[in-house]
Amino acid sequence: MRTGVWLVGARGSVATTSIVGALALRAGLAGPTGCVTELPDLRGPALPAFADLILGGHDVVTTPLTKRAEALAAAGVLPGPLVDALAGELVDVEAALRVAPTGGTQAERAAAVAHDLTDFRSRHALDRVVVVNVSATEPAAAAHPAHHELALLRDALAGPGEVLPTSSLYAYAAFTAGCPYVDFTPSTGARLPALAELAQERGLPYAGHDGKTGETLVKSVLAPMFAMRNLAVRSWSGVNLLGGGDGATLAEPAANAAKVSSKQRVLGETLGYLPQGGTRIEYVAELGDFKTAWDLVTFAGFLGTGMRLEFTWHGCDSALAAPLVLDLARLTAAAHAAGRRGPLAELAFFFKDPLDAPTHALAEQWALLRDFVTGLHAGAGR
Ligand SMILES: NC(=O)c1ccc[n+]([C@@H]2O[C@H](COP(=O)([O-])OP(=O)(O)OC[C@H]3O[C@@H](n4cnc5c(N)ncnc54)[C@H](O)[C@@H]3O)[C@@H](O)[C@H]2O)c1
Predict the structure, then answer these.
(1) Which of 100, 143, 154, 370 is 20–30 Å from 75 (CA)?
(2) Distance CA 84, CA 92 (A)
(3) How far, in Å, is the centroid of ligand 1 from the Cα of 233?
(4) Mean pLDDT of the residues in the chain
(5) Which residues pair with 294 in a beta bridge?
(6) Which residues does residue 82 pair with via DSSP β-bridges, in sequence order?
(7) Does any ligand 1 atom lie closer than 6 A to the CB of residue 57?
(8) Using an 8 Å Cβ cutoff, are 337 and 198 in contact?
């Protein structure tokens, strides 16, 4: 199953790490550590092989991919010798990257993106292309009546205004071109009724939102533990210190607010109440692509005895995110091949703020994912 993976934000840290990782896996130069789809429970015939993933994407900047990979190697995110060994392959991927369209109406920009996608699909003889948004986090979208109905949206996009935030315009373009869409960011993406209508009309699956790679991942394991032991969580406060492009974007208050609300959802949903406290994100340029999260939880046990838990997470964000981007591309491609349309709630395991998720507890999300993938493999074997 030849599968295109089209990365929106293709020259960013997560995208570059995903590209180098996919090329390394294809060349047999690295193992699949961190790739969930290579676990014995999930591996199987329904998923495209790493060798069948062809990469392309859009970005607003034109920094050569090799330069981005070298910078990530210098920062300790990627192994330098691996980047050197893949220099030729990186030049090939460079040829498949396109500059994000600017100017004109939003309908014209969406048509240009859709054209790039169909061109990529036919030039590389791909069975399908999965579009994955890994571009900079944008502020929450302003409400617009056209977000609620596809016919209204089509008319409004042809007008002069900015009707859709960029992430949603990419989702619109992806669906128009017949491509499934995954949002690894907290941005609006496909989360609008008019876009859900378009995905239904075109028979396309989509997934999101916001990859779960650090503090929220740990929260989604610990919060169910407190709930299952009937312990009362009184406060849960977290501080996230990060650098890199993502950290710089999140220093903007509106993007920061979008991320923070995505990170807090797991507590309310899992505990059934919201403890005191919140999550703060602070930009520390010195940390580069590495992140430190520090959380303090206070809770009460039998007869009201007060106790506390602290944890510190030191993660390399892009190294944690990239294998999940490849997992999501493989799983969404398999879901599309199996005829699934609409939101893929079974992929909640991967996200901080999952679409239509029946649960925020990691162990339950894992069981949901395993059953889903088992079904895909059974279908592929028939
Ligand atoms: N790394 C993680 O663990 C993790 C986890 C969850 C979510 N995310 C999200 O993934 C995204 C990417 O993170 P990153 O660290 O790679 O950030 P980054 O700043 O390194 O990369 C973002 C890229 O998007 C590009 N971009 C901006 N606007 C664009 C547009 N309109 N069209 C196309 N490209 C555009 C930028 O030029 C840049 O190359 C962020 O939204 C982040 O919140 C990351």
Answers:
(1) 100
(2) 14
(3) 33
(4) 95
(5) 239, 312
(6) none
(7) no
(8) no
Q: Strand pairing partners for 239?
A: 280, 294
Q: Is the CB of 317 under 6 A from ligand 1?
A: yes
Report the residue among 6, 117, 134, 172 best suited for mutation to probe ligand 1: largest number of ligand atoms under 8 A from its CB.
134
pLDDT band at 382 (very low <50, low <70, confident <90, very high): low
> Tens digit of pLDDT for each residue in 44-72?
999 999 999 999 999 999 999 999 999 99
As given in the structure block, the two tokens for residue 218 are 């740990």
Q: Quick one: DSSP state of residue 233?
A: E
101 Cβ inside 6 Å of ligand 1: no
Tokens of residue 177, six digits? 């071109």
Host H or E run for residue 98: strand 97-99
Q: How many residues does the chain have?
A: 382
Q: What is the mean pLDDT of residues 132-148?
A: 94
Poorest-pLDDT segment among 120-129, 194-203, 276-285:
276-285
24 and 82 Cβ atoms separated by less than 8 Å = yes
- Residue 326's CB: how many other CB atoms inside 10 A? 25
> Does 134 sit in the ligand 1 pocket, CB within 6 Å?
yes
Give the model confidence (pLDDT) of 246-292 as tens digits: 788 877 887 777 767 766 778 998 999 999 999 888 999 999 889 99
